[in-house]
Amino acid sequence: MSMQIFQAPGRIIFGCGSVNSVGEECAKYGTTALVVTGKSSAAKTGMLDKVSASLKESGVLPVLFAEVEQDPSVSTVNKGVTFAREKGCDVIVALGGGSPLDAAKAISLLLTNKGEIQDYEGFKPHKHGMPLIAIPTTAGTASEVTRFTVITDTERKLKMLVGGDGIIPKAALLDPELTLTMPAGVTAATGMDALTHAIEAYISRRAMPLTDIHAIKAIELIGGNLIKAVTDPENIIAREAMLLGQLHAGFAFSNSSVALVHSMSRPLGANFSIPHGKANAMLLPAVMDYNRLACPEKLKDVASALGENTDGLSPREGAVVGVESLFEIFSETGLPATLAEYGVTENDLEALAEDAIASGSTANNPRKPILSDVISIYSSILGS
Ligand SMILES: [Fe+2]
Fold first, then answer.
1. Quick count: other Cβ atoms within 10 Å of Cβ 363?
2. Over the stretch 62-83, which tens digit does the pLDDT of each residue have?
3. pLDDT tens column, 352-375
């Protein structure tokens, strides 16, 4: 057996109150921090005040860049780079969901490397970006520990994956209290994204024993706590489990990669602005139903990790239970269930499927799809 494992370097601080370490962490790298965040929620919920207070206490000047939209664009990244240069920033804090974290990673890269973010699409050589401290406020992307960022190129209508060791944050501060104010819809969508990471990492052709351990743990934690967090937002135990679960999922998919669900959700985001988590949520049960024939043993394991009783079942029977369980969890989230709700029509499916087939993640899928397979999976969630 041969394995190559990437482990997030730097420091991971997990637990209630860990956000208060941001000043101390930043002071190791600089004195002026670009604080990258979304347009309003970090300020509204008081998180930004906590970050600013901690920075000031450690002698670091916060400079706010609260401009990141959902699915950050190339132009937002460029704006952030220019702003950071103008203000003389020497360290970056990313505060928010996947979008601010991804934007901050791209900004960090361009502050120490020449050219545009498009030049680094895929895995291109680069120098390490400006030191970045990442503080997630959702339990989903695990962007705080991965070496990927997704930036939307609005001209090419494409979600670009940029990857490499140079964009890994120096430290990740995971504070479950920051996730308590997440609305139910965001909790559901980001949690389903994390569940997708875990399951895709487990069934991926690149799965390894070390990633399997993280993937299964993630499925257990997320499967057991997602609906609790959606229906009882103040449940700190469930919030903590979700944040830990998405972290395990991050370790897993950083190494074994995601698969067809992500290939199919990216074009939905780029062309119809369907939020990443909502697109994955809709696709996850349908794609796993398609994958069932190729990896029944693994989907039986998924069923048990989700808490289903699979005693005495054959792999095929167990996989059916696993897929049914995913359909059930998805319906309990209350998330939109059809592509039609986002304006997708029958005529759009072929172009979407072509994009999905071309995605690098497709090669990791246990069942190799042809165009008509992908069209029929999209079709199964089209609705009317
Ligand atoms: Fe994802």
1. 14
2. 999 999 999 999 999 999 999 9
3. 999 999 998 999 999 999 999 999
Q: Which residues pair with 94 in a beta bridge?
A: 36, 134
What H or E segment, with its residue span, contains residue 351? Answer: helix 349-358
E strand or H helix at 160, and its extent? strand 158-163
Q: How far apart are CA 70 and CA 81, in angstroms?
A: 18
User: Under 8 Å CB-to-CB from 246, ≥6 apart: which residues?
Assistant: 139, 140, 141, 142, 190, 191, 194, 197, 218, 222
Does residue 265 register a pLDDT over 70? yes
- Ligand 1 center to 54 CA (angstroms): 30
- Ligand 1 centroid–CA 93 distance in Å is 21
- Averaged pLDDT, 135-156: 94
Q: Where are the domains of the chain?
A: 11-179, 184-380
CA of 262 to the centre of ligand 1 (A): 6
CATH (residue range 184-380): 1.20.1090.10
**CATH topology assigned to domain 11-179:** Rossmann fold (3.40.50)
Interval 160-203: pLDDT, tens = 999 999 999 999 999 999 999 999 999 999 999 999 999 999 99
What is the Å distance from ligand 1's center to 276 Cα?
A: 7
Find the 193 Cα to ligand 1 centroid distance in Å: 5
Distances (CA, A) of 153 to 120, 121, 264, 277, 327: 13, 11, 17, 19, 32
DSSP 18: G
